[in-house]
Each structure stands twice: as C-alpha cells, then as structure tokens.
Amino acid sequence: MKKKKDINIDPETYERLKEHLYSKKPLLGSNSPFSEMLQGMVNKVLEGEMEYFIDEQKAAGKKNKRNGKIAKQVQTSAGPIYVETPRDREGDFEPEVIGKRQRFLTSGLDEQILALYAQGNSIEDVRRLLSKMFGVDISAGKISQITDTILPELEAWRSRPLTTFYAVLYLDAIHFKVRQDGKYKSTAFYTVYSVDWQGQRDILGLYINGNEGANKWGLVLQDLKNRGVEDVLVMCVDNLTGFSEVIQQEFPSTVIQKCIVHQVRNSLKYVDEKDRKKVVSDLRKVYTALTEEQALTALKSFEVKWAKKYGYILKQWEENWSELMAFLDFPKGMRKMIYTTNPVEAVHRVVRKLIKGKAAWSSTTALMKQLYLSFTHNEKSWRRKAYGWTEVKRDIQQLYPERVPED
Predict the structure, then answer these.
(1) Residue 202: beta bridge partners?
(2) Smallest Cα–Cα separation from 172: which of 78, 266, 119, 235?
(3) Which of 31, 139, 335, 407 has a C-alpha 20 to 30 A away from that of 121?
(4) What is the Cα 187 distance to its own chain's centre?
(5) β-bridge mates for residue 256, sequence order
(6) What is the reported pLDDT for 4?
(7) Residue by residue, what is the 3-state secondary structure of the chain?
C-alpha cells in the first residue's frame, strides 16, 4: 500500500491555522487563513492558465506575451479574496477559473443564498447573514439576481401537466401584505393541496390574486382543468360564500366537503365562555356520529338544549348540512382524510414561518419566489403518502368503479 503524501504547509501558515482553530473564531470569512489559502490557490491556478495560454500562442506561431496583472477583490463562500489576473499584450487571454469581469467565485454561494431566502429571510437579512457567516459582502441587487435564477424553474413548475384524476383536493387561502401601486395591500395566496390516485400528496400550483373570493377560486380551478385535471372525487373547502357553486360549475361530479373544524370555529364566535365546553361537546356528538341518521338525532338534541340561546348555530349547520356531512357517505379511512381541511395546514405551517419574521413583500414576484423556495426546501413536511392509502383506495374503487383510473 502506498504511503499517503503529507500536505505541505509552510510553518508560518501552519501556526496561523492552529491559532485560528484554537481561537474558536469562524473558520471562514475576512482575515481567515483558510481564505488566504484559497486566495493563494486561485492565483496559482490563474498563473498556470496564463502559462498554458502563452505556450499555445507560441506553438501557433504568434508573438503574444504577458503584460502584467490586474488586481481585484472577489467574493467567495470562504470570504473575500484578492486576485491578480494575468494579462497578455493582445488581450486574448480569457481565464476560466474566474472571468475577467467576474466578481464572485460562486461555488456553493448561490445555494447558500437560495437556502437563506427559502427560510423567509429578506434580501437585507441574507446580506447580513452572509457577511456574518462568511465575511462576504454582496449587494442586494446581486442577491436578487441570484434568486431570480429560479424563475424559469418556477414557471415550468406552475405550468406543468397534471394527472386527469385526483382523489382529494384541499382548497384554502392564506394572506400576505404585498406592495401594489405604492401601497401595501392584503393579498391572498391560494393553496391547492392534493392526494392523487397513488396516495401521493402534492401542491398543484401557486396562485396569488388579491383578496380571496369564489370567482378567483374559479380561475384556479380553470387552470387545473387547462393543465389536464378532468375529475376530482372530493374537494375539501371552508365556508366561503359562493365557493360550492363555483366548484359545481367547473367539476359537477365532485363531492364537496365543508370543513368541520371551520364550522365549529364559526359556531363558537358568539358563545358565552361558560357555555363553550358544553356546546363543543354537543356539536362533537353531531360530527362524530357513525351515520347521518345518528347525526340528525344529535343535531335535534342540540336544538332542544341550545336553540333558544344559540339559534344561529343551529341555522348554520342546517343550511350547510349536506356538505358538512358529505364525509359520512364514505368508509372510516376516507372520512378521516376529508372531514376537515387540516391537511393543508401542514403546508400553511411552512408559509407561516415566513410571515413571522416578515411584515410585507415588495412585489408578488418576490413573494412567489420565496414561497416556491420555501416549499421546495421543506418538502418533507408536506410531500408524503396518505396514511392507510391501500385501504382507502380499495374503498373508493368499490364506491366509484366508473370514475377511478386503471392502475
């Protein structure tokens, strides 16, 4: 076995490296010996490139010669370094490791910027963190350019073809402050979270369009159809006015399930604190019933007990009854999946992390970039197979054999 060669470091550099390690200072950044080592290596590589270039020029019979150097500062993920780029008399030398006008040695740096941006940091936050971690000073414009590089990928993802059939779609919106026409306005982000026929969960698109409204949800559904969706078995929604009518217009065969959690929350708006636990307990008997008949009996019991004081609750449940209790037409496994829009909250938790540290966005494009990066960097939190899908899939096949696709 060959003996590995020792790494040759001059004694002075070795002592500085050792001292730096014991000091517990950041390994990378300004005045770090590691940055100096990178600087020395880059300059040696540039010298090597020039020597090779001049040798090629001589071999071709040209009389080109070296003509000094140009010094410049280059930002790297290890901190700023000072580079001396060799010049030739004819100006034909084009270095490969760092171009003539290049100010960034971006190996790994772009990825760091995108990762920091995906965590909800603003452009200024990213600048500050890069400076603190690596001693790298990058302008806001450059950081914005780097985040813009994902726009073609984002656009391709937003317009990608979809499958023809989805078992479940969860539809919900979350709001952000975005600068428009010189003012910061509340803007709705429309989330379409899906379960396909193989039980895989996915986000089908990113949609930002003013305040939430049924007609705007209609545009979202039309986009899904344009991208290939032909049938959705169940859509889980909140109680937005006109939402059901829009869904029926675009997907007339779809079962609409209104979110029980939203309904209970709305029911408790005007309930006295001393009655809340009892009201919640009695409503729970309604939506945990095994059959619609039992649910109606529980609702009748609720009426006898609370109609005089909280008649508005009874009216809410009666007006939305068929869509609140739609889940009772399905077996147990499917019921757990669709009685609420809570699954989409796994997606919104990722989004809310952005909201915590940020009051507003400069544009819808900035918001869209950050949302996309956040989702792609946090896929494990929402992209997973639906629990117990084999049993659920078998039940759906028995209930709707004419609608489900062939495996």
Answers:
(1) 194
(2) 235
(3) 31
(4) 17
(5) 235
(6) 43
(7) CCCCCCCCCCHHHHHHHHHHHHHCCCCCCCCCHHHHHHHHHHHHHHHHHHHHHHHHHHHCCCCCCEEEEEEEEEEECCCCEEEEEEEECCCCCCCCCCCCCCCEECCCHHHHHHHHHHCCCCHHHHHHHHHHHHCCCCCHHHHHHHHHCCHHHHHHHHCCCCCCEEEEEEEEEEEEEEEECCEEEEEEEEEEEEEECCCEEEEEEEEECCCCCHHHHHHHHHHHHHCCCCEEEEEEECCCCCHHHHHHHHCCCCEEEECHHHHHHHHCCCCCHHHHHHHHHHHHHHHCCCCHHHHHHHHHHHHHHHCCCCHHHHHHHHHCHHHHCHHHHCCHHHHHHHCCCHHHHHHHHHHHHHHHCCCCECCHHHHHHHHHHHHHHCHHHCCCECCCHHHHHHHHHHHCCCCCCCC
- pLDDT tens for 238-254 read 988 999 999 999 999 99
Q: Which residue do the tokens 């109609």 mark?
A: 307
The model's confidence at residue 145, banded by pLDDT at 50, 70 and 90, is confident
